[in-house]
Amino acid sequence: MNKNHDLLRRIADPLELNVSRETFEKFIIYKDLLKEWNQKINLTAITDDDEIFLKHFADSISIFHLKEVKQAKTVIDVGTGAGFPGLPMKIINPSLKLTCLDPLNKRLNFLREVSKEIDLHDISFIHGRAEDVSRETSHRDNYDLAVSRAVALLPTLMEFCLPFVAQDKFFVAMKGPEIENEIEISKRLFSQLSSELVKIEQIPDLDEYEHNLVLIKKVKLTNSKYPRKFTQIKKDNQMYKDLLSKSKI
Fold it and tell me: Is 52 exposed, middle or buried, given 0-12, 13-18 or 19+ CB atoms closer than 10 A?
């Protein structure tokens, strides 16, 4: 048995998810295309095969630790980049209706190629910024689940992602070890964005870094003022960074 197949099964089996040989072959094709396209466009700094399986694929499917994720039928991956976590989620659960959103069309072209090569269906690829797309009627307050593994701070991700989520559904942010501090600087936004923190679940045994799933429930429809213009969000994101820096002193 391939050690990377073992790795994915170690994550998936306790969650009653199937990583068959056929499913594993899809991840191999994904990995090969990621490395090939990465020579032309910047998709990832991780290029070692084992590291791709550990830090991209296993990390992405770890999101199924949350029952709310397993129950979702419509998912939008905001700032999907090279497809994480959305595309691995779709490979594991082909019945998901997945939307991949990214501001760079060349990344979406890569994802289209991957999806074609591994025969994935019922995926939408949206080229645009979250703050613009989330104001479109077909996307606003519409999804069972919004996910993001983007590098932005939590309050920024909340403003980008929660407008997509249907009332009483969920947003999951995949975050690292600074999450408690990020929650602290996000407190005022929970009420402003009609949401509440459900829990933070730490995912063990992936690598030397701490991985956390932040589960946020949307309790009412998002106020029409959100998301604000990108310049305002970017300015606040810098303010949040400054607050985090001060908390470490």
Answer: buried
Q: Where does 3-247 sit in CATH, by number?
A: 3.40.50.150
| Average pLDDT, rounded, for the chain | 93
Q: Which pTM value belongs to this model?
A: 0.95
pLDDT band, very low/low/confident/very high, at 234 (cuts 50, 70, 90):
confident
Residue type, 190: F
C-alpha closest to that of 164 among 127, 131, 191: 131
Going by the DSSP 8-state scheme, the letter that residue 122 receives in this structure is S
Quickly count helices (H) and strands (E) in the chain. Answer: 11, 7
Could you tell me the sign of the dihedral formed by the alpha carbons of 11, 212, 72, 80, in that order?
negative
Q: Are 172 and 196 in contact (CB under 8 A)?
A: no
Using alpha carbons, select from 37, 38, 27, 59 the residue that is nearest to residue 212. Answer: 59
Banded pLDDT at 238 (limits 50, 70, 90): confident
